UniProtKB/TrEMBL annotation:
GO molecular function: L-malate dehydrogenase (NAD+) activity
Annotated catalysed reactions: (S)-malate + NAD(+) = oxaloacetate + NADH + H(+)
Organism: Cetraspora pellucida
Keyword Membrane: no
Gene Ontology terms: biological process: malate metabolic process; tricarboxylic acid cycle
Lactate/malate dehydrogenase C-terminal domain sequence ranges: 157-321
GO cellular component: cytoplasm
Family, as annotated: Belongs to the LDH/MDH superfamily. MDH type 1 family.
Keyword hit for NADP: no
Subunit relationships: Homodimer.
InterPro entries: L-lactate/malate_DH, Lactate/malate_DH_C, Lactate_DH/Glyco_Ohase_4_C, Malate_DH_AS, Malate_DH_type1, NAD(P)-bd_dom_sf
Keyword line: NAD, Oxidoreductase, Tricarboxylic acid cycle
Catalytic residue positions: H187
Protein name per UniProt: malate dehydrogenase
Amino acid sequence: NQFHAHRIVVGVVILKRAFSSSAANATKVAVLGAAGGIGQPLSLLLKHNESISHLALYDIVNAPGVAADLSHINTHSKVTGYSPDNDGLKHAVTDATIIVIPAGVPRKPGMTRDDLFNTNAGIVKDLATAAAQYAPKAFMAVISNPVNSTSMIQKVTTLDVVRSSRFVSELKGTDPKNENILVVGGHSGVTIIPLISQSGAKFTDDELKALTHRIQFGGDEVVKAKAGTGSATLSMAFSASRFTNSLLRALNGENGVVEPAYVRSPLFESKGVEYFASNVELSREGVGKIHDLGPLSQYEKDLLEAALPELKKNIAKGVDFVHKQ
Ligand code: NAD
Ligand code: LMR
């Protein structure tokens, strides 16, 4: 129906309307694609999260094995694993508070994220449909690429800010945890817009250009280094774990939890770009206040101009996919 179609358009959604405080004490998180390169370390990190009482792992292969392994770790959450047999997907998502989706095919050298669309859009659609059916109140967060087309709220922008703070600290010789670089827009090539000027860091034009390029193509750096065996998994798992934890804190009533997220956004709607990543205050409803971008340098304004048409194309691709279903 229309509501489902709309949700799947862009893959994922803030679906939850009301989050009761009692639910906060019994928090189930489902990971779909849990046996993969991202899914396994992400599940490991989530097993360490004291706010989670039940970790449900689903994959088309080997999720029960990963779950058995993690279940021996002496943190308090229960871990269960499901395969497609015996309604595994249904059981994995039922009663989940948050559903994280790293299922799908990763890039090989020479591929763009967009080349993954045909395979991954179908996977995300099937998983999001099941989630909508069996866990209509859950929040979903999609990692599967190309996220500009497949998701509506995701942690990939977290990966971009994690990378930026590391790359800037390498250049400046500082501690990366003190470098907070906002990245807005989307998550592929020119749609990734680092707002380095707001950090107060001073770079030469050449340094700034090289740094921006490295942030925009950080994913390619890993794809190339992994030489055909996949793309970023560990830094992505770290980023997804951070985002999930921030969302859990906000759902538990903490104010002022801000993460960059790719969401349905009014910021550039007038230019026909309905989804955009910027700092978002997370809340009991998922997305709270969407922050504007703040002051931009001329260089960043030019990056934004280059990003908007590409983002518009990526979003239209996701929308068309759903309308053709
Ligand atoms: P991977 O191949 O190692 O793991 C993917 C897992 O998904 C596999 O275990 C596979 O069995 C499972 N899977 C496939 N179809 C499924 C289905 N229908 N239901 C459940 N599980 C299914 O890949 P990976 O390295 O973990 O990457 C996964 C996805 O994440 C890729 O699309 C990749 O491009 C994307 N990614 C996104 C970001 C980001 O910033 N958003 C970063 C890194 C990777
Ligand atoms: C990344 O930025 O590392 C991910 O989007 C994976 C990729 O394909 O580069």
